[in-house]
Write a structure and sequence with these properties.
By secondary structure, this protein is an all-beta fold. It contains no helices and 7 strands. 0% of the residues lie in helices and 41% in strands. A hairpin with a 5-residue loop joins strand 1 and strand 2. The model has no long low-confidence stretch (mean pLDDT 85).
Length: 107
């Protein structure tokens, strides 16, 4: 059982840089149960030449997996999808409620 918390931030973010400094990875989670979060992602001191953004999002009541069912999101598996990102030092992204965004940027 997970205890409810009223002071938890809506956005959780973690990032790391490869040992050679050429790759930055970030994971962002919109913990809100309703509503989108619009965020500005900036890379201080790092200008990507290539970037990939994968978004995992589904209705909050969706289930996924062979044990539960095939899926309840319109009969299709719930899986990450590529979203548009530009290889720049800053960009604005929108995360749906309950979504996870993976960003991999390379220079």
């Amino acid at each position: 059982v997970v205890k409810a918390r009223s002071n938890a931030p809506l956005l959780m973010a973690r990032a790391g840089r490869s040992t050679d400094g050429r790759r930055v990875t970030a994971l962002l989670v919109n913990r809100a149960v309703e509503g989108e979060l619009t965020i500005e992602l900036t890379f201080d001191g790092f200008v990507p030449t290539k970037i990939s953004c994968q978004l995992l999002a589904a209705p909050l009541n969706a289930t996924n997996g062979p044990v539960l069912s095939r899926s309840v999101q319109k009969g299709a598996p719930v899986k990450p999808r590529e979203i548009s990102c530009t290889p720049s030092a800053a960009q604005t992204l929108t995360l749906p409620a309950g979504s996870i965004l993976s960003v991999v940027a390379e220079s």
